[in-house]
Design a protein that fits this description.
The chain has about 280 residues and is α/β, with parallel strands linked by helices. It is built from six helices and eight strands. Strand 5, helix 5 and strand 6 form a beta-alpha-beta unit. The N terminus is likely disordered. Keywords: Coiled coil, Membrane, Transmembrane, Transmembrane helix. This is DUF3105 domain-containing protein.
């Protein structure tokens, strides 16, 4: 820019040095100006660092897929284990049914021989019909009654019987009802409550689904397992005893005191106190 004087000559204004150039920006002109990095924002002469780039780890895509595979494998394992136990139970049920069917055929064949003769051949059986017939009265009475044997094999009893349609009772039942079931021709299996589970299972397989049989725990037994029919008793040490099945085949239905009586329609409850339901 030029200024005109009164004599017409151009004059330039004095330039006052301020220590910075006319184009200097804040932060410039400090020590190190003119060097590389001069003119950058203050901060040790370094300026602002660029923001670090963000890396996205996409992986191989196997993370979610691996989780899906894991869930599927776990589900298949659960289904497999469940199927194993279902098949195992079905096979056990089928085996028990097949055994009962075989027992029924054998029982029918053996019934060609009088049952008393067959019972007499079972070692250790006690025949109270022959030994103590006076104990085997059969009057219907209400209330708590006294019996001559433990568990009882006969005597006066409650007017209502215990259901004996292959019933497995998980608690003691009343003697008064059970004896009435014996009168109808049932076989009653009793066992010490401390009997191992596998032993109980063997007894259950003989009873479940088999009419005119029942089983229940019984306190105070002098043997782990006892079998009762009307007038007969057998005591054994374990459920594998080979005398159990012949006892059932010989006396189930055959030892009845009321031919044609049923095992359904009685009481289906547990507890040692008899129910007074009338005659």
């Amino acid at each position: 820019m030029s200024l005109s004087s009164s004599d017409g000559q151009e004059r330039r204004p004095n330039v006052v040095t301020t220590g910075r150039t006319a184009t200097a920006k804040p932060g410039e002109g400090k020590a190190g100006a003119g060097k590389p990095g001069a003119g950058k924002p203050a901060g040790g002469g370094k300026g602002k660092k660029p923001a670090p780039s963000m890396k996205v780890n996409q992986g191989s895509g196997m993370g979610p897929l691996g989780m899906v595979i894991g869930v599927v494998v776990l589900a298949l394992a659960i289904v497999g284990v469940g199927a194993f136990y279902i098949i195992k139970d079905m096979n056990a049920t089928s085996d028990a049914k097949a055994k009962q069917e075989a027992e029924a055929k054998l029982e029918a064949e053996e019934n060609k021989t009088p049952f008393a003769e067959r019972a007499a051949k079972i070692e250790g059986i006690v025949n109270y019909v022959a030994q103590k017939p006076a104990w085997l009265t059969a009057t219907h009475k209400q209330g708590v009654l006294t019996f001559q044997t433990t568990p009882p094999v006969g005597g006066d009893h409650n007017p209502t019987w215990q259901n004996c349609m292959g019933n497995v009772y998980d608690a003691p039942i009343a003697n008064e009802h059970a004896v009435h079931s014996l009168e109808h021709g049932a076989v009653w299996i009793t066992y010490n409550p401390s009997l191992p589970a596998d032993q109980k299972k063997l007894l259950e397989d003989r009873v479940k689904g088999r009419e005119f049989t029942m089983m229940s725990p019984y306190e105070g037994l002098d043997k782990p397992i006892t079998l009762q029919a009307w007038g007969y008793q057998l005591k054994v040490d374990n459920a594998n005893d080979p005398r159990i099945d012949p006892f059932i085949r010989a006396l189930r239905l055959n030892a009845t005191q009321e031919a044609g009586a049923v095992c359904s329609g009685g009481v289906n409850v547990t507890g040692t106190t008899p129910r007074n339901l009338g005659n």
